[in-house]
Amino acid sequence: MMKIKSLLILFSLLTLPHLPMTAQEEKLFTLEDLNFGGNNYRNMLPENLWLTWWGNQLMYQDAEEGGMQETSGERKAFFTLKDVGTDFHSAFSAQYPYADQTVVLLKNSKQRILYDWKLKKTVWQQTCEGEQFSEWNAASRAVAYVKDHQLFVRDADNKEQKLTADGSRDIVYGQSVHRNEFGIDKGLFWSPNGMRLAFYRMDQSKVTDYPQVDIFQRSATYEPDKYPMAGETSHQVTVGIYDLHTQQTIYLQAGNPTDRYFTNIAWAPDGNTLYMFELNRDQNDCRLVSYDATTGQRIAELYRETSEKYVEPLHPIVFLPWDSDKFIMQSQRDGFNHLYIYNKVGKLQKQLTRGPFVVQQVLGFNEKQKSIIITSNEANPIQHNTYTVSVKTGKRVLLDNGKGSHHAVLSANGEWMYDRYTEPDVPRNIDLVNTKTGKAQRLLTAADPWKGYKVPIFESGTIKAADGTTDLYYRMVKPHDFNPTKKYPTIVYVYGGPHAHNVEAGWHWYSRSWETYMAQKGYILFILDNRGSENRGLAFEQATFRQLGQIEMQDQMKGVDFLRTLPYVDMQRLGVHGWSFGGFMTISLMVNYPDVFKVGVAGGPVIDWKWYEVMYGERYMDTPQTNPDGYAKTSLIDKAKNLKGKLQIITGYNDNTVVPQHCLSFLDACIKAGTQPDFFAYPGEEHNMRGHASVHLHERITQYFEDYLK
Fold it and tell me: Is 655 a catalytic residue?
């Protein structure tokens, strides 16, 4: 669901390592070991290196010092926090903004400084107390930020300029808009030279308040959220540009912002033109438009893409570093996300990548080779591998070992990258790779931090979807002492929604640590990525259009059919669990197949899509007014009467993503129908349980299956 990709990761516990164990190893895991909120969690993670780039020189940083990481694996310390001063006395994140200067950018709650480790002194500093949503520019050393709802800019000389006066809870400046959909994760965008600032202004005065309550006061207080529900009035967004030279603000003349989305803002290399994708509310008509950054006037429509279902722009255009007349655009228009080269007047030059695979990320460019470095799943649908792509010929060359899940970061000119990766039986490796030759130098081979524990058996494979042709990937987790002659209670862990996946060729096949905990207790876990999930192309993703949950259930039931063929799966003890979209899927399966699933635990579940947000909900379901049959078919309210098994529903009491109206309305329907779900709420928590509350949550989930499934 909307922020689902990140929500899924946050809630469901981070991937942890596995290597085979020997019979004499006796230690058992606890949730304090496995859960990200646990007291021993950090000690159970594989070794890592915290790396960044200073131009083309690889740098390391730890809690107290920063320095150079040699290709030989040797380190050379450049400075420590003691060198910098007493105001910087804890763990830090260092940036090296200038390839030709021996300076590091550091920030704490009060100041932002440039420290020259060669001169051993601070060479520049800037006040930053009270900044929110700040964005600093290395070229101008100006920072834009929000404070008390207003937007400010502070220049390199610490001169502060207040840009707005009407900021409020209703008028929001400089923050993410459209509820973080369409790839939006911020609201401030500096031009390359740092002399112009583009920013979002969001008017949400007409958006309905959802009545959240803070119970931790002597008398509970009203703390409403602005929450635009599907089919209801949404917010209006405009884009402003502030010029540091003229100290004037203009707004893009994009027309009436009602029922429109503005996203993927990008600057021309010279900072004189701004580009953004404009999308209608129905999300089936997408246009790339250019604007004059000095006047705000519309220049031209460079590209248009329409669909009978939806178009989802997720990536801003990126200009070629060696040719300011051409840019890279990403689109799924041929069925898979690929790269296209356009010139700045909107003429297609070529389709650069093509084939039945997804370009997952553009990492950057190798300027000397005139190539683009990308991540894709060309080698395997559940892998992430790094390739260099020649802009001239389109030829792709693999830069890693062709296995596993790779996440690379490029140096300034793209001639080098460090590649952090895992495989199903590899905890973590880090390589330094030359992007011209592909030659790799190993920087880290992490040891197994689970050595000495009883580790489950992790397996992966494929089954056919309900259409009979599409391959679906699954993961199965079995107890460490698995005996094929026994029958085991089995839990289907499900998510199933857009922009997320559960199965990947990383450590343990991307298994979540709660699965390890349950396998240790004698359960089998089964996880299947149904149609509608990510990284498999447009037809795979859009199969669920206007009927969320229906195709997904059909595919999940093919997984159940597969489980029936396994003699060690006890089909009389089949459970299901999921969170967010997975909570929706859990209850959907429980009430649509009441004789199949004995026990379910649904966290943060959507119950009826008319109570979900405009941007995400209408993309996949249209509006309740235009798709009444789809909303009726997918709603779980009228299916509460079908509940037979034991169902526990869990929510954050202050969930601002899937608001509590969902689960409370389902409880009301169950009361009227005479069915008996269980319910638990976490006061003060939002969509995901934070900190140690997550340990409590997973103890509760576990105990429910122990009580009713085992």
Answer: yes
| d(C-alpha 337, C-alpha 353), whole Å | 9
Kindly report the number of other CB atoms within 10 A of residue 368's CB atom: 12
**Contact yes or no for 208/287 (Cβ under 8 A):** no
b/e map of 90-121 (b: 16 or more CB within 10 Å)? eebebbbbeeeeebbbbbeeeebbbbebeeee
For residue 539, CA distances in Å to 335, 336, 495, 501, 523 come to 7, 9, 19, 16, 34
pTM above 0.70, yes or no: yes
Of the candidates 645, 676, 675, 649, the residue with the CA atom closest to the CA atom of residue 664: 649
Q: State the pLDDT confidence band at 72, using cuts at 50, 70 and 90.
A: low
Tokens standing for residue 138: 């290395």
CB atoms within 10 A of CB 7: 25
Name the nearest CA neighbour of 13 among 21, 32, 27.
Answer: 32
Q: What is the DSSP letter of 466?
A: T
- Tens of pLDDT along 5-21? 333 322 233 333 444 44
Question: Which of 149, 245, 147, 126 minimizes the C-alpha distance to 197?
Answer: 245
Query: Catalytic: which of 580, 588, 635, 694?
Result: 580
List phi, psi (to 5°) of 109: -70, -15
Catalytic residue among 178, 687, 694, 698: 687
User: Are the beta carbons of 319 and 349 closer than 8 angstroms?
Assistant: no
Catalytic residue check, 687: yes
Catalytically annotated residue among 655, 662, 694, 698: 655
| CA pseudo-torsion sign 154, 158, 161, 165 | positive
Residues shown for the chain = 710
Among candidate residues 360, 514, 383, 579, the one with its CA nearest the CA of residue 15: 514
Task: Kindly report, residue by residue over 624-675, the tens digit of the pLDDT.
Answer: 999 999 999 999 999 999 999 999 999 999 999 999 999 999 999 999 999 9
